[in-house]
Amino acid sequence: MPHLHDPLMIVTDLDGSLLDHHTYSWQPAERWLTLLQQQDIPLVICTSKTAAEVIPLQQQLGFPGAPFIAENGALVQIDNAQGEMVRHHAGKNYVEICDCLRRLQQQYQFRFTGFADFTEKELANITGLPLANVALARMREASEALVWRDTEEQFTLFQQQLEQESLMLVQGGRFWHVMPKGSGKGEALRWLLQNMTTAGGKRFITVGLGDGPNDAPMLDSVDYAVVIKGYSKFPVELTRQDERHVYQTMEYGPTGWSEGLDYFISQE
């Protein structure tokens, strides 16, 4: 098991993991957040949220400037060798994706509504977020979130057409996410780790935490995976076989998050 003094990196989902599913509170994880800060262990947020949502949250959590993965892995931000912040996009940008979606909608009469089409008030009603947060959630750069309102047959056709446009669909909690093909939380984390090393040039030992099906690629890519008990009706299905390096928590949200780190990381 890794030790607190090892070159660790914590990679975490937000909603339902580090943040409580209902209240968005991270208070039960406060003890561990303080320990990570004291040991200079990077906390890499890996989320469906936008960069505009992640950056102020990093400040609040006490990890400003840390690398992060946003929009389900379609966007990664790291420091480059010169110490400058670099954003990596996996493929088409937001404007190109929205243009493509409008074209397909006109051509095949697909019935769906994207973030670009909702008003902020409508999105606030759907997500339960305050209007100020909705504005940040709409500042998308590399993926579009949408509500599907059509038949299963049309959905299959939609997926096929997206494939031809080098795009794919990922299921989130409330929305389907249209993203560049070959992107995702796992691919984004692999890219990040290829472009980051510790100050001493060692590779990071990664501990990943998530509660939803879209976290599975990230949890398959880390050294130690914490599957947090969640509310999704879809299970988190991992492909990895090293069961000793996977822990399923008994508790939900940030309490389960702390439980997972207690299980894997030795503080002796």
From TrEMBL:
Domain of life: Bacteria
InterPro entries: HAD-like_sf (IPR036412), HAD-SF-IIB-MPGP (IPR006381), HAD-SF_hydro_IIB (IPR006379), HAD_sf (IPR023214)
Gene Ontology MF terms: mannosyl-3-phosphoglycerate phosphatase activity
Listed Pfam families: Hydrolase_3
Source taxonomy: Bacteria, Pseudomonadati, Pseudomonadota, Gammaproteobacteria, Enterobacterales
EC number: 3.1.3.70
Annotated keywords: Hydrolase, Magnesium, Metal-binding
SUPFAM superfamilies reported for this sequence: HAD-like
Organism for this UniProt entry: Mixta hanseatica
Protein name: Mannosyl-3-phosphoglycerate phosphatase-related protein
Keyword Hydrolase listed: yes
